[in-house]
Recover the amino acids of this structure.
C-alpha cells in the first residue's frame, strides 16, 4: 500500500484517466479525474471504507500499481474512461454498477440521426424511453459511462461545439441535399424552428437550414470525438477551413475556426464535481471545494512613451507563484501606446495555445476598458471564466478591483499578488528588450 501511495504522489496534476492494476497488470479499476494525482491520493484516506465502500478497499488490497493517461480536458477523460471500461471490462467497475444501469450515448440510424442518452437495459429491451418511437434504430453506441448526470453535462458541452438534433423532426422524410421537397417547392429556412433551434442548440434540421450531407459530416465529427480521435477532427476541420478560405468563403471559414477553437479549449467546469481531499484547500470563485488547484493568470503591458510595447502572463497557483508557466509577448499588431489593443493581442495569442491549461480566474492590469476587452474575446469563443481588473492610483498602487465581488473577497490577496508579479515581470522584460534594441 505504501508503494502505491508513493506512486500516487508522482502522478501528474492534470485531467485524465487512472487505472489500478493487479497481478500481471490486469486492469482492476478505471476512473477519470480532474487532477489524476489528487484523485488517486484520495484512495489512501483512513476513511476509505466510509467514503468509497468495502468493495474499493478490497480492490486496493489487490492492486500492485497504478497507471494513468493524461488528457487535455475532463470531457476527454470522461470519454476515455468509457472506452477503457469497454476494452478491459474491469471487475471492480462492473461490480460497482448493477441492474444494467450503465449509460450509453447512441446515434440513431436515420437520415438526420439523433444523439440520445440511454441506459443499457433500454438498449437490451430495444426501446427508447421518453421518445416518440419505442423502437431503437441503433447505428452507433458509445459507452459504458458510469455516471449519467455527468454524461448529461458532457453532452451539453459537445452540443455547443457540434450542433445536433435530438427530438425535432425534419421538414419532410423525402427532404434532399438540395433543400427541396419532392413534389412541392421548399425554400431554405421556411420551416417552423424547434425550441432548440431558437436557442442555438439545433443546426436547423426542422427548418431545412442544413443539408443531409452537412449534417452527416457533423455526426462523423461527434463519432470521432467519442472514439477519442480529437486530433483527427482538428486535422479534418483545419483542412476544411483552409479549403473554404481558398474559395473565399470567409463566413464558412470563420465558423469552422470558431468550432476549432472550442474543440481545442473545451470548457468543462460543469464536469468538475465538488470534492475534498486530505490536506488540500481547493477553492472556486464561489467558495466551492474543487478537486483542482486554484489557478490565476495575470496580464500586464509595458512600453516607453507608447513604443517598444511588450506584454506578459504570470501564473499563481494556490497563492504561490509558478514561474515555469510565465510567458512573454512581443506585441506585433499595435504600434502606439494602446494598452487595450496590446492586451487583446496577448489574450488572443494565449488562447491559441491549447496545451496551456486554462485558469480559474483572469486578472488584468487596468479598469473597465481592459476587463471589457477580455470579456468580449471570451464571449466570442464561449469561454466562461471570470475576469477582474486591478485599477491603480497615480502612484501605480492598487486602489480598486473590478469584477465579481464574491470572487474578489475570497481571493483578494492572490489577485493583488498576481497583479504585482505581472507588473514586475513586464517591467523587467521591457527593460531587457529595450537594452537589446539600444545596443
Amino acid at each position: 500500500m505504501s508503494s502505491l501511495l508513493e506512486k500516487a504522489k508522482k502522478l501528474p496534476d492534470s485531467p485524465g484517466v487512472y487505472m489500478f492494476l493487479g497481478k500481471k497488470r490486469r486492469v482492476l479499476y478505471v476512473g477519470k479525474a480532474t487532477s489524476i494525482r489528487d484523485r488517486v491520493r484520495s484512495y489512501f484516506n483512513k476513511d476509505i471504507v466510509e467514503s468509497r465502500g468495502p468493495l474499493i478497499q478490497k480492490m486496493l488490497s489487490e492492486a500492485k500499481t497504478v497507471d494513468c493517461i493524461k488528457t487535455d480536458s475532463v470531457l476527454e477523460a470522461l470519454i476515455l474512461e468509457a472506452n477503457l471500461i469497454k476494452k478491459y471490462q474491469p471487475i471492480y467497475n462492473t461490480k460497482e454498477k448493477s441492474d444494467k444501469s450503465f449509460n450509453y450515448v447512441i446515434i440513431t440510424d436515420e437520415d438526420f440521426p439523433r444523439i440520445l442518452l440511454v441506459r443499457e437495459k433500454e438498449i437490451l429491451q430495444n426501446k427508447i424511453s421518453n421518445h416518440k418511437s419505442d423502437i431503437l434504430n441503433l447505428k452507433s453506441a458509445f459507452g459504458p459511462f458510469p455516471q449519467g448526470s455527468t454524461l448529461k453535462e458532457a453532452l451539453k458541452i459537445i452540443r455547443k461545439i457540434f450542433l445536433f438534433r435530438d427530438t425535432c423532426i425534419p421538414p419532410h422524410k423525402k427532404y434532399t441535399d438540395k433543400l427541396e421537397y419532392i413534389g412541392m417547392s421548399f425554400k431554405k429556412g421556411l420551416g417552423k424552428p424547434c425550441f432548440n433551434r431558437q436557442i442555438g442548440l439545433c443546426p436547423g434540421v426542422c427548418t431545412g437550414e442544413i443539408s443531409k450531407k452537412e449534417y452527416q459530416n457533423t455526426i462523423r465529427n461527434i463519432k470521432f470525438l467519442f472514439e477519442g480521435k480529437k486530433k483527427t477532427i482538428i486535422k479534418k476541420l483545419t483542412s476544411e477551413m483552409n479549403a473554404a478560405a481558398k474559395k473565399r468563403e470567409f463566413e464558412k471559414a470563420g465558423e469552422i475556426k470558431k468550432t476549432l477553437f472550442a474543440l481545442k479549449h473545451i470548457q468543462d467546469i460543469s464536469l468538475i464535481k465538488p470534492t475534498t481531499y486530505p490536506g488540500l484547500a481547493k477553492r472556486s470563485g464561489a467558495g466551492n471545494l474543487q478537486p483542482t488547484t486554484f489557478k490565476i493568470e495575470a496580464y500586464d503591458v509595458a512600453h516607453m512613451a507608447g513604443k517598444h510595447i511588450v506584454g506578459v502572463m504570470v501564473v499563481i497557483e494556490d497563492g504561490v507563484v509558478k514561474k515555469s508557466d510565465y510567458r512573454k509577448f512581443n506585441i506585433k499588431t499595435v504600434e502606439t501606446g494602446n494598452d487595450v489593443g496590446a492586451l487583446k493581442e496577448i489574450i488572443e495569442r494565449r488562447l491559441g495555445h491549447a496545451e496551456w491549461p486554462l485558469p480559474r480566474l483572469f486578472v488584468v492590469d487596468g479598469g473597465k476598458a481592459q476587463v471589457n476587452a477580455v470579456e468580449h474575446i471570451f464571449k466570442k469563443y464561449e469561454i466562461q471564466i471570470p475576469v477582474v481588473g486591478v485599477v491603480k492610483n497615480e502612484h501605480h498602487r492598487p486602489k480598486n478591483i473590478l469584477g465579481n465581488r464574491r470572487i474578489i473577497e475570497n481571493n483578494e490577496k492572490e489577485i493583488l499578488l498576481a497583479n504585482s508579479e505581472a507588473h514586475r515581470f513586464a517591467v523587467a522584460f521591457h527593460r531587457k528588450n529595450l537594452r537589446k534594441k539600444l545596443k
Remarks:
- Residues 279 and 355 are 28 Å apart (CA to CA).
- Residues 129-136, 173-189, 274-292 have pLDDT under 50 and may be disordered.
